[in-house]
Specification:
Radius of gyration: 22 Å
Order of helices and strands: HHHHHHHHHHH
CATH superfamily of the largest domain: Tetracycline Repressor, domain 2
Number of strands: 0
Shape: flat
Mean pLDDT: 93
CATH topology of the largest domain: Tetracycline Repressor, domain 2
CATH architecture of the largest domain: Orthogonal Bundle
Largest sheet: none
CATH class of the largest domain: Mainly Alpha
Low-confidence stretches: 1-6
Strand content: under 5%
Distance between the termini: 73 Å
Helix content: 55-70%
Structural class: mainly alpha
Length: about 210
């Protein structure tokens, strides 16, 4: 055997998933393919298919991996603290993997991994004293808030298509001074504080905090 022979790293589901997330972060979801993933891993795409029958199976596994990465606060914490931790963890996970948002925002969270995560949210709402119906409705409303926040921060208003005839800064300041002044707080450096404000408003509206 030649002394120049190099030992090839074993191809495992974990290695494939981590490489896929890295590649999606580099080129975006639209450009991602099993062929390009194979190139990144130094193997043929067919080798990946031994572990994941198709791209959908791989994306499904990535959803599970990302959801599982969100830390679940211990049940010893009071319920509102658990809800804050789950919400902040979900936001942080989305910000770590912004290019995966098109999948994560619409994928049904109905695998065993995802159902366990969703159940933690519902358990915290019930532990906070909400009845079954109120907890269910608040659970759905929390999903609206978290998905909407992720969409706005990652792929939202500032990155969307513009009017062909936008209102200029000078006109905005002259005719809509309040809106122009508010724009100072719409930039990315204010996103975290705005998220916390929204989370407080949500929890207060659900009757879970009073101050």
């Amino acid at each position: 055997m030649s002394g120049n022979t190099t030992k090839r790293t074993a191809l495992t589901p974990e290695r494939i998933e981590l490489a896929a997330l890295e590649l999606i972060g580099e080129i975006g979801l639209a450009a991602f393919s099993m062929r390009k993933l194979g190139e990144k891993l130094g193997c043929e795409a067919m080798s990946i298919y031994h572990h994941f029958p198709n791209k959908d199976h791989l994306l499904d596994a990535l959803v599970d991996r990302l959801v599982a990465s969100v830390a679940v606060p211990p049940h010893a914490l009071e319920p509102v603290a658990r809800l804050r931790g789950l919400a902040r963890g979900w936001r942080a996970m989305n910000l770590r993997h912004p290019h995966f948002l098109p999948v994560l925002s619409v994928h049904r969270l109905n695998s065993a991994v995802c159902v366990r995560f969703l159940n933690e949210i519902l358990l915290a709402l019930l532990a906070a004293g909400l009845g079954r119906e109120a907890a269910a409705r608040t659970f759905r409303a929390m999903a609206y808030f978290l998905v909407g926040a992720a969409l706005d921060e990652i792929a939202g208003y500032a990155k969307g298509p513009s009017s062909l005839h936008p209102v200029g800064d000078a006109e905005l300041a002259r005719d809509f001074p309040e809106l122009a002044a508010a724009g100072e707080y719409f930039s990315p450096e204010h996103f975290e504080r705005t998220f916390e404000t929204g989370l407080d408003l949500f929890l207060r509206g659900a009757g879970l905090i009073t101050s």
